[in-house]
Design goal:
about 280 residues; alpha/beta; globular; 9 strands; 9-stranded mixed beta sheet; about 35% helix; Rossmann fold
Length: about 280
């Protein structure tokens, strides 16, 4: 597991660094940053990946993007990289706490959120929609890949997540989770990424995060969002649900929908064409 959470991968044409940034007295988050050898005057791209996501899934996109733009990649606290002091509980993984973490990281790095071009996925996108609506964060632009309107788990999964489980049960529970993802997800690349992410997790953190998320949904009213947003999705992505994604597009003022061939395509360098087209139009 540890190899997924240590070391900023080297990228040709950019310098890299890894740091743990304090987001509160108890919590430090892993942040990776790449700066092009020939930096432009453009604002930074801040990258907030999905629930439990590991860097390897984003490597093809970031390897190309980091040669041209400064990239700040923030791993939220449910991931195996976070350092949390003391006993943890479900309250440590609320959406408000995760959004506060992101704001604190930007503040520590001297980055103004209103100057950021955001790129996020899944839970990361949900966090940003919530934070934009509440005025916790702002941005120059935001591309939100497959935001979750809510987090619907099967009844059997909700039952397992609610009961205390001894640590020796964790590997068995993980095998069940992988089986469930394999049944639900149709795209092979997406299945591989999710399987890799699940196998690399601190299951204790993930369970506490899931216990909060299964009772969460985005606010119905998203009319206070002023950040220019594009919602990116693929009709083949059965995990996030096209109808709910469309509902989010309709509720964010001026939001644009970008449909891509597949969820896997949104992790590849080719998607920079759609990203740049949207960012240059704002």
């Amino acid at each position: 597991m540890d190899e997924h959470w240590t070391g900023a991968p080297a990228i040709e044409g950019a310098s890299s660094r890894e740091m743990w940034v304090d987001s509160s007295a108890r919590v430090s988050l892993r942040v990776m940053e790449w700066t092009p050898d020939s930096p432009s005057n453009e604002t930074p791209v801040v990258f907030v990946p999905g629930w439990g996501s590991v860097f390897e899934g984003w490597k093809p996109l970031i390897e190309e993007w980091a040669r041209h733009r400064r990239i700040v990649y923030i791993e939220t606290r449910e991931k195996g990289s976070s350092r949390i002091k003391g006993r943890i509980s479900k309250k440590d993984f609320t959406v408000d706490r995760l959004n506060s973490d992101i704001a604190e990281v930007l503040g520590s790095m001297g980055i103004e959120s209103k100057e950021v071009d955001w790129f996020s996925s899944s839970l990361g996108s949900t966090l940003l929609v919530d934070a934009f609506q509440k005025g916790i964060l702002s941005g120059r632009t935001s591309i939100l890949l497959a935001p979750n309107h809510d987090f619907i788990f099967p009844i059997w999964a909700r039952f397992l997540m609610k009961i205390p489980l001894p640590r020796w049960m964790h590997p068995r529970l993980m095998r069940v989770a992988i089986w469930a993802v394999d049944r639900k997800v149709k795209e092979e690349g997406q299945r591989i990424r999710y399987r890799r992410a699940l196998l690399s997790q601190d299951l204790g953190k993930m369970l506490l995060s899931a216990r909060f998320l299964m009772g969460y949904s985005l606010p119905i009213d998203l009319s206070s969002i002023s950040v220019p947003c594009a919602i990116m999705t693929a009709s083949s992505d059965k995990l996030h649900g096209m109808e709910k994604v469309l509902s989010i597009v309709e509720r964010i003022p001026g939001a644009l929908m970008i449909e891509v061939p597949s969820n896997q395509y949104a992790h590849e360098a080719d998607v920079l064409k759609e990203i740049r087209q949207f960012q240059s139009s704002v």
